[in-house]
Amino acid sequence: VIDIRKLYGQSGMFTYDPGFTSTAACQSAITYIDGEQGVLLHRGYPIDQLAEKSSFMEVSYLLLNGELPNQAELEKFNSTIMRHTMLHEQLSTFYRGFRRDAHPMAVMCGVVGALSAFYHDSTDITDPTQRMIASHRLIAKMPTIASMAYKYSVGQPFMYPQNELSYTGNFLRMTFGVPAEPYLINPIVERALDRIFILHADHEQNASTSTVRLAGSSGANPFACIAAGIACLWGPAHGGANEAALNMLREIGRPERIPEYIARAKDKDDPFRLMGFGHRVYKNFDPRAKVMKETAQEVLDDLGISDPVLDTARELEQIALKDDYFIEKKLYPNVDFYSGVILNAIGFPTEMFTALFALARTVGWIAHWNEMISDPEQKIGRPRQLYVGATQRDYVPVGQR
Ligand code: ACO
């Protein structure tokens, strides 16, 4: 705590907290994390129970509305979401302006931001009905947007949604199906991907959610706010870690090389970090990583795939968990450590990993955005700073400097 009167003669006190390690920026009733115990609850429900027993649609309803739906509510929610899956046809022209080798996250930032140019009837944030329509649209359109980014990158035609399919089954078909052939959804893959979506759905005030809240605090429309969240998520310290983790595991290649990478991660002169390890809040196992690890094994077994990357990941985890450096700093695998192994087995290229994270996190972002906008005490977010620059001085004409 700094007495700013001593520094600048202004009144009041403020905290200097780089990285917001100990500052609550809001009150929230959506998600609870106990980082010391490795607990994650959505609206009170443990993440492992949700991952095992529910569906992404159910969890989306829960995050948005505060309670689990009954059967009729779930069916209505599902059909509402699926009714909004189509994108305005003009947006396909927008895709064609990108290079084919554009990163899908670059495309997602652009296309999601552009939604506000198409859906004017859901940008009035003072109207709760419009806010809910925008929320449904965003949840519904993200699979279409992400799959179109993929299709564009591989040079295949865009696939229109099929709304009688499940949310996740429809996404798989739009991504891996082709118009000329029927696409058979593998129920094991569909369930695994749905579980990955559940595990990524929300995580309280992480960097991207805080970005969405900060953007929304100025009154920006929801599509623009979610685009801001996508931009933040892209970084390798956040959602980009799933792509970076798989690339790292592939680079390690075989278990014999693990000690070399552990040594690099511990070397303070080397910027290398073990990707998919460590977390700002968890100082224990990330409960999502536990479910992800089990799911990775199940999916690979079910698909009959033997992936040496999974062996490397397991071995790396075992070695790191016994190493004094990782023990002392309380560094455990996070949600991104095992997710890449599953996504790779399903057939997604690494560049799509963070786009899938964005797809799933959209529901969390929009739930937080709604919670913030509905709060009568909501104000524009405006952090202060600790000024460390020059004191006042007089301008000197350029010829005399
Ligand atoms: N490998 C090696 N050392 C690490 C790692 C790691 N993965 N993570 C943290 N450390 C060390 C740091 O060097 C630091 O050491 P020091 O105290 O000697 O300086 C100490 O642990 C604390 O690290 P910070 O960066 O200060 O911790 P912070 O809470 O700011 O960062 C973060 C958390 C960004 C997740 C970090 O652990 C990291 O970079 N991990 C790798 C990237 C990653 O997996 N990100 C995904 C996070 S989960 C998500 O967003 C979905």
Automatic annotation (TrEMBL):
InterPro entries: Citrate_synth-like_lrg_a-sub (IPR016142), Citrate_synth-like_sm_a-sub (IPR016143), Citrate_synthase (IPR002020), Citrate_synthase_AS (IPR019810), Citrate_synthase_bac-typ (IPR024176), Citrate_synthase_sf (IPR036969), Citrate_synthase_typ-I (IPR010953). GO terms for molecular function: citrate synthase activity. GO terms for biological process: tricarboxylic acid cycle. It catalyses: oxaloacetate + acetyl-CoA + H2O = citrate + CoA + H(+). Signal peptide: none annotated. GO terms for cellular component: cytoplasm. NCBIfam families: cit_synth_I (TIGR01798), PRK05614.1 (NF004126). This is Citrate synthase. It comes from Sphingomonas piscis.
